[in-house]
Amino acid sequence: MIEIKNLTKKFGQIDALNDVSFNVKRGDVLGFLGPNGAGKSTTMNILTGYLSATSGTVKVDGHDVTAEPEEVKKLIGYLPEIPPLYTDMTVKEYLNFICDLKNVPSKMRKSMLDDIMYLLKIGDIRGRVIKNLSKGYKQRVGFAQALVGDPPILILDEPTVGLDPRQIVEMRKLITSLGKEHTIILSTHILQEVTAVCNSVVIINNGRVAASGSVSDFAMKKGDAGRFNITIGAPKAECIRLLSIIESIKTFEFLRMDRDDAVFVVESNPGTDARIDINKVFAEMNYPILELRSVGKSLEEIFIDIVNQDARVKEAFD
């Protein structure tokens, strides 16, 4: 559905994007991640035709963004981080104006806008002036304009910014629902959001793709077989003392006391299996191992590892 190949964008001597390539399949909900200044917004602005690329190609459903910009724009609904609102208009006036821009036939407008306002739960504020709305409602109106014309592709830049916890849950459910019939690129700093609604991930850093794959593959590929939770039938202080002398342990962290038992998360040194040494040391002291369970890394930890590793590689070549 979306093909980005060797995309480069320079602002003077600064490489905002450097040879970025990735694809988004039809029906995917892609989490587009990266630290501030990584190149996410630049990529989305090129994809939507707002910026031109220095080099490389972007195709949307076979249409080249540079050669056929109007065809591409018909396929995309875009919610920028700051919604593009005309705040002196009422909600209804603004959405009708968006219908004009997107050439939505008059006979389709009422039913379409009624459906969108119902979906975004803004029907009861359709007559209110946008500047008088809360930030959360403004965000919803911005989302509504992206849905006008029923584009097959949605590009959402921080769609839950300004929403309260209940509204965030509702928005995630909405994105999940829309993902059944749309291809979606979701840019967000809330990594739980990616886990909740996305099926694939692209991580960008320093203007380059640092990693990509499915959400499930990330857990499998990046999960650490040497990382595990362990419950020990011993006092906390004694557990800390014994864990500290086991050389095959890279790190350990106390999590909690479960009645009289101490629970830790432990990570083995590369190429070792600390479980063997832990069992031996604690058995010698007659302290039972009550539970030992392997755990994978969270998406937050994976993200930080990838960004840090990518930064080290960049420094090595600079």
Task: Characterise this structure.
The chain is an alpha/beta fold and about 325 residues long. It is about 40% helix and about 30% strand. It is built from eleven helices and 14 strands. A six-stranded mixed β-sheet has the order 6-7-8-3-9-10, with helices on both faces. A four-stranded antiparallel β-sheet has the order 2-1-4-5, covered by helices on one side. Strands 12-13-11-14 form a four-stranded antiparallel β-sheet, with helices on one face. It is elongated.
* Biggest sheet details: 6 strands, mixed
The separation of the N and C termini measures 35 Å
* Total helical elements: 11
**Strand elements, count:** 14
Order of helices and strands: EEEHEEHEHHHEHEHEEHEHEEHEH
Task: Please state the CA-atom Rg, rounded to the nearest Å.
Answer: 25 Å
Kindly report the spatial arrangement of strands forming the biggest sheet.
Answer: 6-7-8-3-9-10
Helix content: 25-40%
Shape: elongated
As residue ranges, the low-confidence spans are none
Going by helix content, strand content and strand pairing, the class is alpha/beta
